[in-house]
Design goal:
CATH class of the largest domain: Mainly Beta
Number of strands: 28
Strand content: 35-45%
Radius of gyration: 34 Å
Largest sheet: 8 strands, antiparallel
Number of domains: 3
Structural class: mainly beta
CATH topology of the largest domain: Jelly Rolls
Distance between the termini: 61 Å
Oligomer: single chain
């Protein structure tokens, strides 16, 4: 065994005496009595740093620190006055051991304007917003002629459809379900489908990045609470201009229909600049749930020190029950760190609602209901990265203080629960994307932020998590705050509940 002895008695000079063999003692003298620097009686702190000998072939098993402390000129203060001697409280020896190879595990933050990989004195900037450009490849098919071709028409053409290509919007996605009976009855037979024809009733607009996807399915209806989003073949992808009359869209990749399955056809586009009007096409009515559409892809993005101050005027009805739900997609480059995606407090600034999403240990914490003195009810569970970062997930957090139940739902499925949680809730402040002290900021995307003054049943969470809320929701009367976060521009967000409390951004919320 090797011993390390440090004699700390004065300041300034450090002398190293090396014994480099295992089992030997290395002595490092840090102070000596002849030092004159500093004065312990005039407030000057005497200290020094002692560096361990750097020899990778050996390691230290014990560090012995020897202190020899003396009074100036051997004087001792016995009268309580200043006799330049030592008194009862005149000694303080503090020693710290530091390993510079270790990295502090505490999370640190920095300002918004540190410029990565830039070391110069002048940084050139633009007053115009900059964008990231992503290169994609589109396929343009030119049809020179046909030798033979079979075609069939599905539907009666008795209605005008404006939701298929709402080119006056930035984005849109729509799906149509065609049954095998419809296709066969219209004259289709098994084989390749090479093109689709649309009769445009009005609108000469562009649908940029137009995609057409097709897939076989056994479904007989389309369910907006559980949309089909996988297994499609991309048959068309190109910037497309529509004109009134017949419009033929020639596929770059033919779809091979098996002749027995139902088929889902999906149209989607993205316009950087919306057009002046939608493209209206000819369609037909049907009694089944054979079509669904969405033309709202907006959400907010928060990072750094940004947050949203949610008005609490209409939250006074929250006492025994609450439900908070949202869609979220956390920033995988930041998480997991200590975060609060939402936190609220009472008039005494005691925590009443909080969701760590996640904490640095990867746990999601649901805190709800305070005891008035800083305590609160809590349930928590370890989450996987895929559940809180890198992709969209729907989360719902409920509490019923009467029954004592607290629950967390992930994508409509019960994810975690706890019982015996009976503290009531008193919300006087509420912050989105940070805690009540405006720290522990959360980074990522958020959409459809909803608060009810009731515990929403799991079935209703499932039925409405993919749909915009309307008064058809069974708990619409309990809706006290509803921020779809779909404005797409500006520094405020609209509350679509009956309370209509506009919330303000703080920082560069996108």
């Amino acid at each position: 065994m090797r011993n390390f002895a440090a004699t700390l008695v004065a300041l300034l000079t450090t002398t190293f005496i090396f014994a480099q063999n295992p089992g030997d003692t290395i002595v490092v003298q840090a102070f000596d009595w002849n030092m004159t620097y500093g004065n312990a009686w005039d407030g000057t702190i005497r200290d020094t740093s002692v560096t361990f000998p750097d020899n990778q072939a050996i390691s230290f098993e014990r560090v012995v620190m020897l202190y020899n402390i003396r009074c100036r000129d051997g004087n001792v203060n016995t009268s309580g006055g200043n006799s330049n001697g030592c008194g009862e409280w005149d000694y303080s020896c503090n020693t710290y051991i530091h390993d510079s190879s270790r990295v502090d595990s505490s999370v640190s933050t920095h300002g918004d304007f540190i410029i990565t990989n830039f070391t110069g004195n002048n940084f050139y900037y633009s007053n115009t917003q900059l964008y990231d450009y992503i290169e994609t490849y589109q396929q343009n098919v030119v049809l020179n002629g046909t030798t033979t071709e079979a075609s069939a028409t599905v539907g009666s053409g008795n209605v005008s459809l404006g939701h298929t290509f709402p080119t006056d919007k930035n984005t849109s996605k729509v799906q149509y379900l065609y049954t095998e009976a419809e296709l066969t009855g219209a004259g289709f037979s098994a084989g390749t489908i090479d093109a689709i024809g649309l009769n445009v009733l009005s609108g000469s607009e562009n649908a940029h990045f137009l995609r057409i996807l097709i897939k076989h399915t056994n479904a007989t209806t389309l369910d907006p609470s559980n949309p089909d989003l996988s297994g499609f073949d991309t048959v068309y992808y190109h910037n497309t201009s529509f004109t009134p009359g017949a419009n033929r869209i020639q596929f770059a990749q033919a779809f091979n229909w098996d002749g027995t399955s139902n088929v889902i056809v999906e149209f989607s586009f993205t316009n950087t600049v919306p057009g002046s009007a939608p493209v209206v096409i000819e369609g037909s009515t049907a009694t089944d749930s054979c079509a669904m559409y969405n033309n709202d892809d907006y959400h907010i993005a928060v990072a750094g020190s940004e947050y949203i101050d949610i008005p609490t005027t209409n939250l006074s009805s929250i006492s025994n029950e609450i439900t908070i739900s949202f869609w979220a997609n956390g920033d995988a480059d930041v998480l997991p760190v200590n975060t609060s995606i939402v936190e609220g407090a009472d008039a005494g600034n005691n925590r009443q609602v909080n969701i760590h999403f996640p904490w640095s240990n990867g746990n999601v914490y649901w805190d709800c209901g305070g005891d008035g003195s800083g305590g609160y009810d809590r349930i928590n569970k370890s989450a996987t990265p895929a559940e809180y970062e890198g992709n969209w997930n729907h989360w719902a957090f409920t509490k019923n203080a009467t029954t004592g139940n607290m629950r967390i739902y992930l994508n409509g499925t019960l994810w975690h629960s706890g019982t015996g949680m009976t503290n009531t809730i008193d919300l006087q402040t509420l912050i989105l994307a940070a805690n009540r002290s405006l720290g522990n900021n959360w980074s990522g995307y958020i959409k459809e932020f909803r608060i009810f003054d009731a515990e929403i049943a799991q079935a209703d969470i499932q039925n409405w998590m993919n749909s915009r809320l309307t008064n058809a929701h069974p708990n619409y009367g309990n809706l006290v705050a509803y921020y779809p976060l779909n404005e797409g521009t500006g520094t405020t967000i609209n509350d679509n509940s009956t309370g209509a409390q506009t919330a303000n951004f703080d920082g560069n919320v996108q």
